[in-house]
Amino acid sequence: MERQPDTQPPDAATVAELLRAAREVQARAYAPFSKFAVGAALLTEDGRVFAACNVENSSYGLSVCAERAAVAAAVAAGALRFRAVAIVVSGDKPATPCGACRQVLVEFSPDMTVVLGAPDGSHSLTTAAELLPGFFRL
Fold first, then answer.
1. SS3 at position 137
2. Strands 113-117 and 49-53
3. Do the domain assignments include residue 20?
4. Largest CB tally within 10 Å, which of 31, 65, 84, 108?
5. Does residue 137 sit within a domain?
6. 77 is a domain residue
7. How far apart are CA 85 and CA 50, in angstroms?
8. Coil, strand or helix: which one is 120?
9. Structural domain count of the chain
10. How many helices and strands (H and E) does the chain possess?
11. Domain span at residue 112?
12. Residue 88: what pLDDT?
């Protein structure tokens, strides 16, 4: 029998650690065109954290979002189930992941907690499935 994912939101200390990791990597984002720096920190079921930033390209379609870069790093390390992801962005308010990132997140863990960090240090919680109702899955 497949183990059910941990659908409980992470505790406050874990959320704070994910936001810290996302902000740290956001500072290294390569966003010379949009000036929209994004950092994401992904928490695996076994407690590892994978953080990544967005990397833009002058051929815009080749740009890589922070959320998908974090998922790729986790998958490369052997992780396929995620508990949470924290996302921070430049600007004056939090932003949700783009549609492509939403689809990638629900592919692995629809019930994962998504932490949307605000510049003032506050945050809100949702889930990947709530961000992409009716998501596609084979």
1. coil
2. unpaired
3. yes
4. 84
5. no
6. yes
7. 9
8. coil
9. 1
10. 4, 5
11. 12-131
12. 98
How far is residue 14 from each of residues 10, 17, 66, measured CA to CA in Å? 6, 5, 19
- Which residues are designated catalytic? 67
The domain that contains 48 carries what CATH number? Answer: 3.40.140.10
Other C-beta atoms within 10 Å of 138: how many?
3
Q: What is the number of residues in the chain?
A: 138
Residue with tokens 């932003």: 95
For residues 138 and 129, the model is more confident at 129
Tell whether the model's pLDDT for residue 82 goes beyond 90.
yes
Rounded distance, CA 17 to CA 55, Å? 23
The residue type found at 16 is A
Percentages of the chain per state (helix, strand, coil), in multiples of 5: 30, 25, 45
Question: pLDDT tens across 10-69, in order?
Answer: 999 999 999 999 999 999 999 999 999 999 999 999 999 999 999 999 999 999 999 999
Does some domain include residue 138?
no
Helix (H) or strand (E) holding 41: strand 38-44
Residue 7 above 70 pLDDT?
A: no
Confidence at 6, pLDDT banded by 50, 70, 90: low
